[in-house]
């Protein structure tokens, strides 16, 4: 390992400045050339400016609506002049609170839930300002005025961001409003990162070039990586970003791109207004589990343990059983009609019961509405050659064993509703990994056994991401991601997404 060259500091004599030290480019691969005028001027893309203008305009409207509603609903037409002043100040105060809460931060636009958290922080900030101002001026604010104002600001701010994000997502799915991205790192890590970026166009990243090492030959003779042209080595990242007009440089996990090299890259990109994102190489660890632990000379990435503490588990069970009981009551007419339809069509049993493996390997009986002929299991061996599943799971499109009523039940996942009784009984959860068969568990590799650390669910990430259309590796990855990152709030989000997946019927057969 070669050490970096030391530059002897020059002593200033007789008030003269020392000559500029010339540093070879090979020693500072990412540093801009001293005295260079070719450094790209930092600028905000036009679509970001337009998006922010619309966002601010909508927030102003929300502030005005909140102030007017609070005044009218509390005082009617006899609004006191003090509240007229307060109402006039609400819109700019609301914008200021959102700005201080990072609600307009470019890196959060349409990507993370941080925008929504910023709205909550802004509402709390407005409440704090009103409380301090009332105390300092010895003014008693009407409670009903505040109780109307703050919820309207909260709901309006969240709704504005929800609508804007939906619009931005729709545009990005069409390939518009993307951020040109240069991916840097070792060839295999670059390929993995490019695949991940392309799989989620809603992130807004568009790989336009890669700078890769560990190639089979020279970079200018190397083929494209995942359809993206190779434009140089990692040390050429800044020059390539300038040439391609990139807005982001994404660094894949690479031991050679760390420490001083990564710091120099960050400095060079900072001068150009180019964002730097780094993939730490951690598979499926969600943001809430990641935090920075700073020290005097090094920032450490702290990874929290999965939320499987006793309190979280109890909270999840209470939430599951309560919601399951309410759903059984609400859906009882549908359950009765479905049972009658199954019974009247072929006079067979209404329910299909099957042994499944639950938490910690415990075996239980799962309840489902019967969707196949009575002797379906006897025909399974003859159909193995026509398996459309993912290798471990047997799935078949246009399965001849499925009845006419069963096809409708499967299309809208009505056949899964009796599993609500499994949830009430504590064998399953509303959200979790798919409940596997004992024969499937026997084929599990060690990683897949981690799926059994939580209760299986009626729905999960596999349900809202394609159901039967997923490969075994994709299904396993989603299940393991859920096991490592589940939370009560995350469960509620998956339940909401499940309704959309069921209506679409994607991957259901």
Automatic annotation (TrEMBL):
<comment type="similarity">
    <text>Belongs to the bacterial sugar transferase family.</text>
</comment>
<dbReference type="InterPro" id="IPR003362">
    <property type="entry name" value="Bact_transf"/>
</dbReference>
<dbReference type="GO" id="GO:0016020">
    <property type="term" value="C:membrane"/>
</dbReference>
<feature type="transmembrane region" description="Helical">
    <location>
        <begin position="323"/>
        <end position="342"/>
    </location>
</feature>
<dbReference type="GO" id="GO:0016780">
    <property type="term" value="F:phosphotransferase activity, for other substituted phosphate groups"/>
</dbReference>
<keyword id="KW-0472">Membrane</keyword>
<feature type="transmembrane region" description="Helical">
    <location>
        <begin position="81"/>
        <end position="104"/>
    </location>
</feature>
<dbReference type="Pfam" id="PF02397">
    <property type="entry name" value="Bac_transf"/>
</dbReference>
<keyword id="KW-0808">Transferase</keyword>
<feature type="transmembrane region" description="Helical">
    <location>
        <begin position="144"/>
        <end position="164"/>
    </location>
</feature>
<keyword id="KW-1133">Transmembrane helix</keyword>
<dbReference type="InterPro" id="IPR017475">
    <property type="entry name" value="EPS_sugar_tfrase"/>
</dbReference>
<protein>
    <submittedName>
        <fullName>Putative glycosyltransferase</fullName>
    </submittedName>
</protein>
<feature type="transmembrane region" description="Helical">
    <location>
        <begin position="51"/>
        <end position="75"/>
    </location>
</feature>
<keyword id="KW-0812">Transmembrane</keyword>
<feature type="compositionally biased region" description="Basic residues">
    <location>
        <begin position="8"/>
        <end position="17"/>
    </location>
</feature>
<dbReference type="Pfam" id="PF13727">
    <property type="entry name" value="CoA_binding_3"/>
</dbReference>
<feature type="domain" description="Bacterial sugar transferase">
    <location>
        <begin position="316"/>
        <end position="503"/>
    </location>
</feature>
<feature type="region of interest" description="Disordered">
    <location>
        <begin position="1"/>
        <end position="28"/>
    </location>
</feature>
<feature type="transmembrane region" description="Helical">
    <location>
        <begin position="116"/>
        <end position="138"/>
    </location>
</feature>
């Amino acid at each position: 390992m070669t050490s970096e060259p030391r530059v002897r500091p020059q002593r200033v004599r007789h008030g003269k400045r020392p000559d500029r030290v010339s540093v070879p480019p090979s020693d500072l691969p990412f540093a801009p050339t001293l005295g260079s005028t070719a450094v790209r001027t930092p600028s905000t893309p036009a679509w970001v400016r337009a998006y922010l203008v619309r966002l601010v305009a909508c927030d102003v409207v929300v502030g005005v609506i909140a102030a007017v509603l609070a005044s009218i609903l509390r005082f009617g037409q006899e609004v006191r002049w003090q509240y007229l002043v307060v109402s006039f100040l609400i819109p700019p105060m609301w914008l200021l609170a959102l700005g201080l809460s990072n609600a307009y931060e470019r890196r959060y636009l349409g990507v993370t839930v941080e925008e929504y958290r910023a709205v909550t922080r802004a509402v709390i900030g407005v409440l704090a300002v009103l409380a301090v101002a009332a105390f300092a001026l010895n003014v008693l604010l009407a409670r009903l005025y505040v109780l109307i104002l703050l919820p309207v600001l909260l709901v309006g701010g969240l709704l504005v961001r929800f609508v804007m994000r939906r619009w931005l997502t729709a545009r990005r799915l069409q390939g518009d409003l993307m951020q040109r991205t240069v991916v840097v790192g070792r060839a295999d890590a670059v390929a993995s990162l490019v695949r991940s970026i392309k799989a989620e166009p809603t992130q807004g990243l568009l790989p336009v070039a890669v700078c890769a090492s560990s190639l089979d030959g020279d970079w200018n003779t190397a083929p494209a990586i995942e359809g993206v042209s190779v434009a140089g080595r990692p040390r050429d990242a800044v020059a390539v970003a300038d040439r391609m007009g990139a807005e982001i440089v994404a660094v894949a996990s690479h031991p050679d791109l760390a420490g001083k090299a990564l710091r120099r890259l960050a400095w060079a990109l900072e001068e150009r207004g180019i964002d730097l994102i780094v993939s730490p190489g951690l598979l499926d660890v969600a943001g809430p589990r990641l935090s920075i632990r700073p020290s005097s000379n090094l920032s450490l990435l702290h990874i929290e343990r999965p939320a499987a503490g006793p309190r979280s588990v109890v909270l999840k069970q209470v939430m599951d059983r309560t919601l399951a009981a309410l759903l059984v009551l609400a859906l009882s007419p549908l359950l009765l009609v479905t049972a009658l339809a199954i019974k009247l069509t072929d006079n067979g049993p209404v329910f299909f019961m099957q042994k499944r493996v639950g938490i910690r390997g415990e075996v239980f009986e799962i309840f489902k509405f019967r969707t196949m002929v009575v002797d379906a299991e006897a025909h399974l061996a003859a159909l193995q050659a026509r398996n459309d599943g993912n290798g471990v799971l047997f799935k078949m499109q246009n399965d001849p064993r499925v009845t006419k009523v069963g096809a409708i039940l499967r299309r809208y996942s009505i056949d899964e509703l009796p599993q609500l009784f499994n949830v009430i009984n504590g064998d399953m959860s509303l959200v979790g990994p798919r409940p596997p068969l004992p024969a499937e568990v026997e084929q599990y590799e060690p990683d897949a056994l981690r799926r059994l650390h939580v209760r299986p669910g009626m729905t999960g990430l596999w349900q809202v991401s394609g159901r039967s259309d997923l490969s075994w590796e994709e299904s396993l990855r989603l299940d393991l991601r859920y096991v490592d990152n589940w939370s009560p709030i995350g469960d509620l989000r998956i339940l909401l997404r499940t309704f959309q997946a069921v209506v679409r019927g994607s991957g259901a057969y």
